[in-house]
Design goal:
Blueprint lengths: L1 H7 L2 H15 L2 H25 L4 E5 L4 H13 L5 E3 L3 E5 L3 H10 L22 H20 L5 E9 L14 E8 L7 H14 L8 E4 L20 H26 L4 E10 L3 E8 L10 E11 L11 H4 L32 E10 L3 E8 L3 E11 L2 E4 L5 E4 L3 H15 L8 E6 L11 H11 L1 H30 L4 H7 L12 H19 L4 H21 L1 H15 L1
Parallel strand pairs: 5-6, 12-15
Antiparallel strand pairs: 1-3, 2-3, 4-5, 7-12, 8-11, 9-10, 13-14
Length: 576
Amino acid sequence: MSDQVENATPAWRSQVNRVVDRFKALPLSRKLLFAGAVAAIVSVVIGLALFNRTPSYKVLFANLSDRDGGQITTVLQQQNIPYQLGDGGVISVPSDKVYDVRLKLASQGLPKAGGVGFELMDNQKFGISQFAEQVNYQRSIEGELGRTIESVASVKTARVHLAIPKQSVFVRDAQPPTASVMLDLYPGRLMDAGQVSGILHLVSSSVPGLLPKNVTVVDQDGNLLSSMPDLNSASGLDQRQRSYVRDLEGDYTKRVEAILEPIFGKGNVRAQVTAQVDFSEVEQTSETYRPNSSPNPSATRSQQIVEKLANATPLPGGVPGALTNQPPSAASAPITLPPGTAPGSVTLSGQPMGATGTLDREITTNYEVDKTIQHVTQPKGSVKRLSAAVVVNYRLLPDRNGELKPTALTAKEVEQINNLARQAIGYSQERGDSLNVVNAAFAGAEGPATLQEKAIDFMTANVWELAKYGLLGLALLYLIFGVIRPVMRDVVRPTALEPALAGAGGPTIGGAEQAGSAGSLLAVVDDNEATAAGNVDGREVMRRQYASNLEHARELVKTDPRMAAQVIKEWISADE
């Protein structure tokens, strides 16, 4: 019946049970060594995973004062929120709690910053005077400007003082406002000209009528930062204009190198471009009058014709009186019609002309005058002239022996490089641009790096990292192959003792059940010894089995002397 139950057991379960039994049969020292090795490997794997994991902390506030930092950390401790402190007054919290913590701190008025801002206007007293209200408003502006300037990475604290004069109704008595800024910088930090210029324009843009030249910036050592040479240069260029010129020159340089490097290889082309940029802003208005043109294509603006008809017998006219009634005197010159005019013809006004009448005509014609009004605004930052220099390395070409040697380019190739560089920078002869292309051998120029050289360079640059991971790998290999592998080999692979136990027919030791397995072991050893003596052909095999069984017996005696003594006692009792 027991054989049928044993046969019904799945093969894999039987194998697992045998492995478990073999592991239990191992000495205690080997079990402890195996457990320690497994724990060490698991610890190393978890440590690597934690070491390479991206930090989950995010900056909550930066550039905090000691007072604000202490208040914020106190609130975080009260709410059991983990945090980390960094240099420069930086407080970091878990990334999934950043915005929630900021809202909670804002509800408590944290951080308060160094100065008082527009919250000073929230608690205005009833019946406050206009002077006190103006002072509070000025203090609010100073506090807000101080907070804004403290956002700069190099500034620890900032104080702003505004001198705003009283407004006057007379323009000649008006005085411009002024301001002064006191900066307390972090140790080892400096302010460059661009940052100082930014603070000047920030303060001047926040106060009406305040010019940047009327703002004074001083650091904690009393150094006048607003009088830097870069800010008061004779050229009048600020940091933004210099940066624009550098970026423009770098862009032209990249264009030339980008179009030539695919042909000659990386590192074989060097280019430098110098740009002359005009930052002057010019507005021009001109009126142009063209020369007088012929009357036919000209446009008539207005025309006035005056005609006067003179008869032989003048009609009465003039001022009434005796002088008017007197007959006219004789004419001094004969009055005749113009040649070709027939008597009785009609004038332009439609009146008939007498035989002796004369006609006086006056014609005034006004023509339109051509005029062109042109208003031109030239943009700032236009390029006036470009000067480019390009150096191309010799090509590596094989000689008769197949060795690569530097070889100069031909004149045609240099001309092609010249044309490509001109197209890349937008060469303009009218603008006066210049381009010079030179083909020369670079000093210390070498061929492309081989795979071996790249590997050596990588190992040299990362020697400490490689050593760290190498030692860690060796430790893992020792634990796996030196500790775990022998134990697993003994557990999974059956030893020579099991076949002997299965086929042993020696005497069975009676007595205590707890010493039965040990008695069987010693009995098997005795049987093996007898079999080895009787069987001459399999002497070598049996000798090895006997040595292995004897070693197991010795190990059992060392690990559990009490059980060994009990086995010997049972053995003696059985012999008796």
